[in-house]
Each structure stands twice: as C-alpha cells, then as structure tokens.
Amino acid sequence: QVQLVESGGGLVQAGGSLRLSCAADGSGFSIDVMGWYRQAPGKQRELVAVITRSGNTNYADSVKGRFTISRDNAENTVYLQMNSLKPEDTAVYYCNADVRSTTSWDRGYKSNYWGQGTQVTVSS
Asked: Which residues have C-beta within 8 Å of that of residue 6, sequence separation ≥ 6?
C-alpha cells in the first residue's frame, strides 16, 4: 500500500552536510507523523527527529542545532538536513511514517511503515 523511498545518503567528511529525502509512494493514505531514525553498528535504533503534519518537531539531543527536519505534505515527502556532521553520526538512517488510510473500506485505519535505510558515513 505504502512504500517509503529514501535517498541522499553517502560519504562525507566531518563538518560537511547531507540532505536526506524520504518520499511516500502509493495511494489511499494520509501521513500523520514522519520521522528519521538511525542505527549504528552494534547499537540500537534511535530516534533522530520527528515532525507532525502541522509542523511540530522534536529532535534527539545529539543532533539539536545541527539537523533540521522538514516535510512537504503535498508531495508526501520528509527531509533531514544534516549539517556539521560528526563521525558519531555514522549510521544507517531509516525513514518512518505513521499512516492513516483514506480508502472507503478501511478509512482511518492506522499503520506504520519503515524505509529500507540509507547509509550515512562521516569520515574524520
């Protein structure tokens, strides 16, 4: 029903910037909350940033002041602008979306989707 397609990951030197994008493809849905999570080798997946449909945001303390999450509701896309990148930001970044159905047979039904992940590597 819904597929989250991530892009923008790559290799960057410390202090550099990357912009991640996540587009929700499909039909018959409305997205309530979108967010970015990351998982470094040997560590648990952690929340990076989330944004509601109305634009309210929340960030992990480790990225405040450096990362900015935004969304384009018309395009069902969420972005993560990452500035002043540090080696400790190295991880697989996953897009997440809390989705509500708009189809006639299950309107209002909620589900959650994950993207496949995009690798971000920051060299020192």
From this structure: 20, 21, 22, 93, 94, 95, 115, 116, 117, 118
Beta-bridge partners for 123 = 13
User: Over the Cα atoms of the chain, what is R_g?
Assistant: 15
* Alpha carbon distance 11, 47 (integer Å): 21
Please count the other Cβ atoms lying within 10 Å of the Cβ belonging to residue 65: 9
- Exposure of 108 in the CB half-sphere (CA atoms within 13 A): 0
Q: Can you say whether the dihedral through the CA atoms of 76, 52, 30, 106 is positive or negative?
A: positive
Confidence of residue 1 (pLDDT cuts 50, 70, 90): confident
Q: From CA 80, how far away is CA 26, in angstroms rounded?
A: 21
pLDDT at 107 over 90: no
Q: Report the chain's terminal Cα–Cα distance, integer Å.
A: 40
d(CA 27, CA 75): 12
> Angle CA(30)–CA(69)–CA(63) in degrees, nearest 5?
140
